[in-house]
Design a protein that fits this description.
alpha+beta, globular, eight-stranded mixed β-sheet, Nucleoside Triphosphate Pyrophosphohydrolase, 2 helices
Length: 151
């Protein structure tokens, strides 16, 4: 069996102890905004573009700088990189997902959802993520992101 791999980027957006989740029409669950990397796009460009496209929000990354040298460019380090197997067309597609922690720099209440891909959005208190239909790792992932952000 050939493995179909896709590279994706996800943005865990944090604001006042809450995280922005969107209800994905295709997956019928609540997740942080994100999507596939476009050709010639790096993961940082992808997460900022996807968050803006899906929610209308402009955000800034929270990322550590672990190395710098004048001879090379450095990308901000993601919070984590996950491998997620998703059912698709009777098979499995593996997403290599670069997960970043973000803060809104535009008005966090001015969400303009992308109607074609999401059926709802809401700011969810981090401790309430587990009450929603979401991926099994999502409550722990978002709690860890909140601790990483120092909140």
């Amino acid at each position: 069996m050939d493995l179909d791999r896709h590279f994706t980027a996800t943005g865990i957006i944090l604001h006042d102890g809450r995280t922005l989740l969107v209800e994905r029409a295709k997956l019928d669950c609540w997740l942080p905004p994100g999507g596939h990397l476009a050709p010639n796009e790096d993961p940082v460009q992808a997460v900022l573009r996807e968050v803006s496209e899906v929610t209308g929000l402009e955000c800034a990354l929270l990322a550590e700088r672990r190395f710098a040298h004048d001879a090379v460019q450095e990308l901000p380090v993601p919070f984590t990189i996950q491998i997620v197997d998703l059912p698709e067309n009777g098979g499995i597609v593996q997403h290599i997902d670069f997960v970043y922690v973000l803060r809104p720099v535009s008005d966090p209440e001015a969400v303009i959802p992308q109607a074609a891909e999401i059926t709802g959005w809401r700011w969810v208190p981090v401790d309430e993520v587990s009450t929603l239909t979401t991926a099994p790792e999502m409550p722990d992932l978002i709690r860890s992101a909140l601790a990483y952000a120092g909140d």
